[in-house]
Amino acid sequence: MSSDVISFSRGAPSLDIVDIEGLKAAAIRAFDEDPARVAGYGTSVGYPPLREWIAAKHGVDVDQVLVTNGSMQADAFLFDALVKPDSPVIVERPTYDRTLLGLRQRRGQLHPVKVESDGADVAAAQSLLESGVRPVLAHIIPNFQNPAGVTMSLQKRQRLLALAKEYDFTIFEDDPYLDIRFRGEDLPTLLNMDDADKVVFASSFSKTVCPGLRTGYLVGPADFIAKIAKMATNTYIAPNMLAQATIYQFAKSGALERSIETVRGALAERSQVLQDALHKYLPNATCTSPDGGYFLWLDLGEDVTVDKLAPAALKRGVAVVKGTDFVVDGGQHSLRLAYSAVTTDQIPEGVQRIAAALDDCRVSDSGS
Amino acid sequence: MSSDVISFSRGAPSLDIVDIEGLKAAAIRAFDEDPARVAGYGTSVGYPPLREWIAAKHGVDVDQVLVTNGSMQADAFLFDALVKPDSPVIVERPTYDRTLLGLRQRRGQLHPVKVESDGADVAAAQSLLESGVRPVLAHIIPNFQNPAGVTMSLQKRQRLLALAKEYDFTIFEDDPYLDIRFRGEDLPTLLNMDDADKVVFASSFSKTVCPGLRTGYLVGPADFIAKIAKMATNTYIAPNMLAQATIYQFAKSGALERSIETVRGALAERSQVLQDALHKYLPNATCTSPDGGYFLWLDLGEDVTVDKLAPAALKRGVAVVKGTDFVVDGGQHSLRLAYSAVTTDQIPEGVQRIAAALDDCRVSDSGS
């Protein structure tokens, strides 16, 4: 492995687009303005002013919000509440690898529906439902999907919500990238269109501020949130008060809006530079062109498998994530490329390394 | 309820003994010295410099340490790893209410052994083992036990460890109060006496710094810690990096030692003032005289039940925790009193209110 690996693997903002000084100032204000609640135990619903801020952002009641130690922890609580062994669950194909892992650990029965250029194939979900499958949950990443980079259309959102009402299942709207839109109009969230308590929404400050403060949240029906709050109390009493008070001060001061602008601008540029480099150095591959978010999806063609390519790429000094990580089966000819942790000057070099690794694989294939 | 409730209920330091300025300075240094790791995801073992600091403190290898979002979360992972439905578990009687809850939720088969003035009745544990009970775990709070306030003798520690080796079970040494000793000599931890990988040790910075930073940890055999690290990755990727980096800077600077001195001094005084007030205003009750920690245990006598007393006390403006919370059955004539969240000037008034509430209960009994 090269000592200067270029990483397209992790969906985290590079340090140059994290507002460290703003966070430091926010932490100072948190200690100065509210020492008792920063130092005290708190309760499992989270730091009260941040909870209120999130409720206002999403236009919901405060008792519909629970702030957690990162959104993965929120997912874990939600899965523990809803998914029992053999519970049917609709998932997107491909989808976030840790979602698949969490559902498999709870032995959920996974029903993948393909992700199309306008989001999950809702007609396929409808066929599943009509065939008698009765899911407890449909997991959807509506905006700039991880890993596919596509966004679910308004029409599909409406249709999925209608199905959730008709067949009585929960939509888990997993939406950490919502604010990182580069172009086009914001679409309404499923949460905000929901008039039947069918949606539980999760998001995070990891993609808009930074991951190290591990602050995520759930928004859902008040009785469901109360149930999760009880589980959270029994797990850890309360989430991190210092981190949540810091995020609150960061948001209140306007630094969060500036941070979102910074991340959005940088990622828009990196996404474009990456697409340009892919067209130039890998002309036979096809990639999605995301309207926002952290990732794009690259289809390489049938003549290469990522089980060979990924280690060859790492040898060339570039880290990628194999498509196989994001599907129950298949994905052997695809990669997820994150453009969040690379700077624009690294991207063309990184893509050239992928191209060289592809050549290495082809040479070794033809030689065998 | 009085608007100025005096609380003997929660085991948290009062704000006047939390070093807010020191924590603020530590947070600033965390951002200044290590922005990449404070802002980044990190991994589930915790912030690496804090992990190393903890390993050095306990004289163990770094791969024996996992830093968590509070020690309750550490307990939850440990229980998930070891306790299946009907797994026999030895617990102290009385013991921390959240431990009992966590074990019950996992449907562990609880075997309580009485806490004596020198710690858990190890002879009773031996009888259980000889009768054929094969526990997966014995949960022990060795120092200044919560709620009983007593400390396990060296001899009992040695004997329990010998039993763990002979009968092959894990001792969960739950030791958050270790550093808050008022008098007497430190005893070796079970962890440090263990030569057979039988001990998993848990502690926390909640009792020495403050709870709001939600930082606890586990120390145990490296292979067991690796297993827990995998569970932690799948639950939340990584614990809070800002909080852990702040704790690390606080410890490194010497502020932690000063904080421990402050807490120890304040709690030694509060414990004594509380005992004096109990002897004065409740001469017929008996209480433990802790050598350290946050709590003492008060036996009231047979003529009053805490199910009546606790609400009567709250009406009089004093919060207590019922003995019944800390045992599988019984505890109707005892209270746990925490002297950590009260200042010395509140304590005599608080005890007088308990005495008045006792009178209220007796009057209502004789009138019924």
How would you explain this protein's 3D organization?
Two copies of one chain form a homodimer. Chain A is of the alpha/beta class. Chain A is 44% helix and 16% strand. The first copy, chain A, has helices at 20-33, 35-39, 48-58, 71-82, 97-105, 122-130, 154-167, 190-193, 222-236, 241-252, 255-281, 306-315, 347-367; strands at 6-7, 65-69, 88-93, 109-116, 119-120, 137-140, 170-174, 199-204, 215-219, 286-287, 295-299, 318-319, 321-322, 334-338. In chain A, the strands form three sheets. In chain A, strands 2-9-8-7-6-3-4-5 form an eight-stranded mixed sheet, with helices on both faces. Chain A has a four-stranded antiparallel sheet with strand order 10-11-14-13. In chain A, helix 1 packs across helix 10 (241-252) and helix 12 packs across helix 13 (347-367). The model of chain A has no long low-confidence stretch (mean pLDDT 96). The interface between A and B is large, with 46 and 46 residues.
- Name the quaternary structure: homodimer
Distance between the ends of chain A = 23 Å
Could you give the order of strands across the largest sheet of chain A?
A: 2-9-8-7-6-3-4-5
Helix content of chain A: 40-55%
Question: What would a concise description of this structure say?
Answer:
The structure is a homodimer of 368-residue chains. Chain A has helices at residues 20-33, 35-39, 48-58, 71-82, 97-105, 122-130, 154-167, 190-193, 222-236, 241-252, 255-281, 306-315, 347-367, and strands spanning 6-7, 65-69, 88-93, 109-116, 119-120, 137-140, 170-174, 199-204, 215-219, 286-287, 295-299, 318-319, 321-322, 334-338.
